[in-house]
Write a structure and sequence with these properties.
- The structure is a single chain.
- The chain is α/β, with parallel strands linked by helices and about 450 residues long.
- It has three domains: about 260 residues, HUPs (Rossmann fold, 3-Layer(aba) Sandwich); about 120 residues, Anticodon-binding domain of a subclass of class I aminoacyl-tRNA synthetases (Four Helix Bundle (Hemerythrin (Met), subunit A), Up-down Bundle), CATH 1.20.120; about 50 residues.
- It contains 16 helices and 15 strands.
- The chain has a four-stranded parallel sheet. Strands 5-6-7-8 form a four-stranded antiparallel sheet.
- The longest helix is centred in the N-terminal third of the chain and has 20 residues.
- The protein is globular and about 75 Å long.
- The two termini are about 40 Å apart.
- Bound molecules: zinc ion.
């Protein structure tokens, strides 16, 4: 069966035909690095990791680009609030983000470009939009003229007047039309900026992805992914900018968007106090368990994070790992066909997980050791298609029954005291003791945190 993907552009499930079958090109909008990634941010990165794994299985090469937005008004504001240099904040947050993604079992993208390293490319794209009369300069700003691009709204299917009525666009004196959006804006002193034909300033968010996807994936590429909340305005604007530059058939061919994540039935927000970061979760739960929860419902459906789903997912992983326990696994085994079929049907991960359970059931029932080993080898290879089973079964079970939280906290405290007394030998000994128990420490400006390896 060929791969079918639901394309937001056509609102249909379509067979996927790569532009170049020797090199499938995928772009996913990366994080704005001003704070820890929350669990809702992590969902698309786990889903598109499964897509990346599947594409790698089906095609000889995949180029996966996921940017880092390291210039943004949110970053400037957060650095001011923290009384921290912008560079220190973005570096630190990027490191945490990459560590979180690794702990969730995601394969790093092939290219992770920084926005601040591609301002030259953004300026040249903006210049081209100005030359083509799709953009105009006004009071040090450069704006995209939405009226100049009649196909605007093709992805989100939003009508211009509805957008304005919905008050989702900012009215500003320098705009010709309220729906016009910023490509470039002036930077005052003390705020990061670059010299440009329109003076000292910085790029808008949308142009970043257009310029970086162009550089690494060309004018036209296969798949663009992100959360549903990015469809409008971010993806609509990316598409308008790129197509206004290079023509109507350019930019992403297939658009994939994942559903939103709620916590205990409510939208996550700092004011409700239900804002969960991946970093906090990793202190309590194995990364693989978090990954399993995120894959337990279909990616286009909403997903609710609650204690029940975490408990069920843990039981599921226990059962699956138990089926692998003590088996002699062959490295030759391949993904079984029903798993491949489920994933090829628009990444049906819940169906794939239920097939894993069927396979585990067959292992339990199998009468010979040889048969059990064969089935377990298939289970392992099939789970890996979902990024599961990256550890030995024994370490999965040890992670659960090993050292308890109070002991860990007491040891961290002992290490901090040793460090305060400059007794680094003792501090390192405690660190190693925890490491042997599978606990990894991280020293942050806010203190020492821990997570299971
Ligand atoms: Zn983007």
């Amino acid at each position: 069966m060929p791969l079918f993907l639901h394309n937001t552009l056509t609102r249909q499930k379509e067979p996927f035909v790569p532009l170049d079958p020797h090199n499938v090109r995928l772009y996913v909008c990366g994080p704005t690095v001003y704070d820890f990634a929350h669990i809702g941010n992590a969902r698309p990165y786990v889903i598109f990791d499964v897509l990346n794994r599947l594409l790698r299985h089906l095609y000889p090469k995949v180029t996966y680009v996921r940017n880092i937005t390291d210039i943004d008004d949110k970053i400037i504001k957060a650095a001011r609030e923290n009384n921290e240099e912008i560079y220190d904040l973005t570096q630190r947050t990027t490191r945490y983000f990459q560590a979180d993604m690794g702990a969730l079992g995601n394969i790093p993208p092939n290219i992770e470009p920084l926005a601040t390293a591609h301002v030259k490319e953004m300026i040249s794209m903006i210049q081209s939009l100005v030359q083509k009369d799709h953009a105009y300069e006004s009071e040090g700003h450069v704006l995209f003229s939405v009226k100049s691009f009649p196909k605007y709204g093709q992805l989100s299917r939003c009508k211009h007047d509805e957008m304005i009525a919905g008050a989702r666009v900012e009215v500003a004196p320098y705009k010709r039309d309220p729906e016009d959006f910023i490509l470039w804006k002036p930077s005052e002193e003390g705020i990061p900026g670059w010299e440009s034909p329109w003076g000292y300033g910085r790029p808008g968010w949308h142009i970043e992805c257009s310029a970086m996807s162009l550089k690494y994936l060309d004018e036209t590429f296969d798949i663009h992914g992100g959360g549903q909340d990015l469809i409008f305005p971010h993806h609509e604007n990316e598409m308008a900018q790129s197509q206004a530059c290079f023509g109507p058939q350019t930019f992403a061919r297939v658009w994939l968007h994942n559903g939103m994540l709620t916590v205990n039935g409510e939208k996550m927000s700092k004011s409700l106090g239900n804002f969960i970061t991946v970093h906090q979760l990793l202190e309590k739960l194995p990364g693989e368990l978090i990954r399993f929860v995120l894959l337990s419902s279909h990616y286009r459906q909403p997903l609710d994070w609650n204690d029940q789903i975490v408990i069920q997912s843990r039981q599921s992983l226990d059962r699956l790992y138990n089926a692998l326990r003590g088996r002699e696994l062959s490295k030759e085994a391949n993904i079984i066909e029903p798993i491949k079929t489920a994933l090829e049907d628009d990444l049906n991960t819940p169906l794939a997980i239920s097939v894993l359970h069927d396979l585990a059931g067959r292992i339990y029932k199998a009468s010979t050791t040889h048969e059990k080993n064969e089935l377990a080898s298939s289970l392992k290879a099939s789970g890996e298609a979902l990024g599961l089973f990256q550890q030995e079964p024994e370490s999965w079970f040890k992670g659960k029954t090993g050292i308890d939280e109070n002991t860990i906290l007491a040891l961290i405290e002992a290490r901090t005291q040793a460090r305060n007394k400059k007794d680094f030998i003792e501090a390192d000994r405690v660190r190693d003791e925890l490491l042997n128990a599978g606990i990894l420490l991280e020293d942050t400006p806010q203190g020492t945190t821990w997570r299971q390896q």
